[in-house]
């Protein structure tokens, strides 16, 4: 290697000045960059504090919104729970009312069946039967109406339970969301277990706007309010229905009871009249039997005088020659025989008439006794069986 190059003093000065200028420019640029970085840091810090403060306020406001809607949802949820319990009580009332219709309905059917056992002319379509048929229609109508009402209550319970389910689900979501936002609002820059910066977070497609979120809350509350109003209307209807049906059934059973009383009284009166007529008929039969005895005795009493008169005529017919004249005794005897024969004939005819009359009286006696038996049977059915069954029915209000 050869010796190093030799530079001139001017070159040396120029080189030093170049190093100075370069170093000065680098220093100034560095100072400028430092100042810019300090300004950027301060700006970022201010922006971060502002953003964190704004985020904290918005989180707190959001938490307040969630709490408000949670309170509204809790109120509606409790109302739905209470309404379900109330409807279950109403359902029990309707079930008991429907069950209570069974006994009166069976009694009505039994009364109708028993009254078919009435005999002869008493098997009549009377007022009692009309009222029993009305009673059957009333009870059947009440049972159908109560069954339909029970189905409506079950359907309303189902609807309210559906609303309660969605309210409960919404409350759970809001409870979880409130806990998450509470946790987020408590986070600070010095909080432990902070996640590493994750700039890749993206909203899922299921995200909704605040307006949609509030609209969904309102929708659940509106559904709850609607079903509550429907339930209140249904409960008012059930109260009115139970009262009206009990009143209708009670009124019809009282009407039927009065018809029974009237019919029983009419039957007793008819039976008493028939019994009085039978007693009079029996007395007349006894009189007619005495009359027959008197007629027979009268006929028997006429036999001896008739024989005497006939014997006298026969004997006087043996008078000789001119003595066989038509004298006054002969005339009297002929008249006597004729009259006695006429008397015997008339008495015999009267006896035959009396015997015929006695047969007619006996036939009437049999008819009266049969009719009295018919009335006795009807009284037993109406008074002993049906009326007592009917009196034990109690129409309750549930």
From TrEMBL:
Swiss-Prot/TrEMBL GO biological process terms: cilium assembly; cilium movement involved in cell motility
Keyword terms, alphabetized: Cell projection, Cilium, Coiled coil, Cytoplasm, Cytoskeleton, Flagellum
Bilayer-spanning residue ranges: none
Keyword Coiled coil: yes
Disordered, as annotated region: 1-28
Keyword Transport found: no
InterPro entries in the record: Tektin-like, Tektins
A GO CC annotation given for this chain: microtubule cytoskeleton
Cross-referenced Pfam families: Tektin
Residue spans of biased composition, Basic and acidic residues class: 11-28
UniProt-annotated location(s): Cytoplasm, Cytoskeleton, Cilium axoneme; Cytoplasm, Cytoskeleton, Flagellum axoneme
Stretches of the chain forming a coiled coil according to its record: 264-298, 337-364
Subunit-structure text: Microtubule inner protein component of sperm flagellar doublet microtubules.
Family indicated by similarity: Belongs to the tektin family.
Described purpose of this protein according to its UniProt entry: Microtubule inner protein (MIP) part of the dynein-decorated doublet microtubules (DMTs) in cilia and flagellar axoneme. Forms filamentous polymers in the walls of ciliary and flagellar microtubules.
Name of this chain's protein: Tektin
Species per Swiss-Prot/TrEMBL record: Danio rerio
């Amino acid at each position: 290697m050869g010796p190093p190059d030799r530079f001139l003093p001017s070159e040396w000065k120029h080189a030093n000045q170049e190093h100075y200028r370069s170093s000065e420019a680098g220093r100034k640029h560095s100072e400028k960059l430092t100042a810019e970085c300090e300004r950027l840091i301060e700006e970022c810090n201010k922006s971060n504090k502002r953003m964190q403060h704004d985020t904290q306020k918005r989180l707190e406001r959001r938490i307040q919104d969630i709490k408000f809607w949670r309170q509204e949802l809790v109120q509606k949820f409790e109302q739905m729970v209470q309404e379900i319990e109330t409807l279950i009580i109403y359902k029990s009332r309707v079930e008991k009312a429907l069950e209570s219709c069974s006994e009166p309905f069976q009694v009505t059917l039994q009364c109708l069946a028993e009254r078919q056992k009435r005999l002869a002319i008493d098997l009549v379509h009377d007022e009692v039967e009309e009222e029993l048929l009305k009673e059957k229609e009333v009870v059947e109508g009440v049972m159908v109406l109560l069954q339909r009402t029970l189905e409506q209550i079950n359907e309303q319970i189902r609807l309210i339970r559906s609303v309660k389910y969605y309210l409960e689900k919404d409350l759970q979501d809001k409870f979880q969301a409130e806990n998450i936002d509470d946790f987020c609002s408590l986070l600070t820059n010095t909080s432990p277990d902070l996640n590493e910066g994750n700039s890749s977070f993206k909203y899922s497609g299921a995200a909704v706007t605040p307006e949609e979120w509030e609209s969904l809350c309102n929708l659940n509350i509106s559904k709850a309010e609607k079903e509550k109003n429907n339930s209140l209307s249904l409960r008012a209807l059930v109260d009115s229905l139970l009262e009206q049906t009990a009143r209708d059934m009670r009124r019809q059973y009282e009407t039927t009871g009065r018809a029974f009383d009237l019919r029983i009284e009419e039957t007793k009166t008819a039976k008493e009249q028939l019994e009085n007529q039978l007693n009079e008929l029996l007395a007349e039969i006894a009189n007619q039997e005495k009359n027959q005895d008197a007629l027979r005795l009268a006929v028997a009493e006429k036999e001896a005088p008739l024989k005497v008169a006939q014997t006298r005529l026969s004997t006087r017919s043996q008078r000789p020659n001119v003595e066989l004249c038509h004298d006054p005794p002969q005339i009297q005897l002929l008249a006597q025989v004729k009259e006695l024969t006429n008397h015997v004939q008339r008495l015999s005819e009267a006896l035959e008439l009396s015997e015929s009359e006695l047969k007619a009286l006996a036939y009437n006696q049999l008819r009266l006794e049969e009719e009295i038996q018919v009335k006795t049977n009807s009284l037993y059915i109406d008074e002993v069986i049906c009326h007592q069954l009917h009196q034990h029915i109690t129409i309750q209000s549930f």
